């Protein structure tokens, strides 16, 4: 049974049994539906909470959301669904960025983190080749431009990039309104404005899962080694691209179940 509650205009889906609450955050170009296979296997023992990021549903207007607004929304959701108990964060893509930033500001509300494919991207240790930098800049600028253009052309641009990057989501659910994060990032970066994000320092137990078959990594090797060396942490590499949960769902789910049970 799914309970849907409204938190500041956002529909939050709550499903499952158990004392521990897992809050699932997706990234581009997905919605809360990305986590359907995980909810199926986790709901018997955990309370699964998920919602679509602002602007990621077709019914929502095109708005340039900021880091502060999204962190505040995550905080409001967690306060509503688990006011007296810490939660587990399960994060992917932009959900990692926003979820990590929520954690950095509200560590007292987070018990554990499951980070998928995004680590310390952008840190001093995260070194990329010129070729990989060019690739990442190109696709992100394409999506930033899609948001700026908007409308039918922006939607088409966004869907084409989703296809090129092998995104698993339903094409009909993908629109340019999802790409505001790229516009927010690059409009600030190229004009010298700070993003306002805090340096990543995860002190709670972390399960970090990443795909090896990508043009470039979204984490540094030193960071992964440092995280893996800490008690309670685990780092697992998969023979997949970016969307591990859909490319290797069985192994992905098993890794999560085993780590949460420790």
Automatic annotation (TrEMBL):
InterPro entries: AB_hydrolase_1 (IPR000073), AB_hydrolase_fold (IPR029058), AB_hydrolase_sf (IPR050266), Epox_hydrolase-like (IPR000639). Signal peptide: none annotated. Residues 22-254 form the AB hydrolase-1 domain. It comes from the Bacteria. This is AB hydrolase-1 domain-containing protein. It comes from Shewanella algidipiscicola.
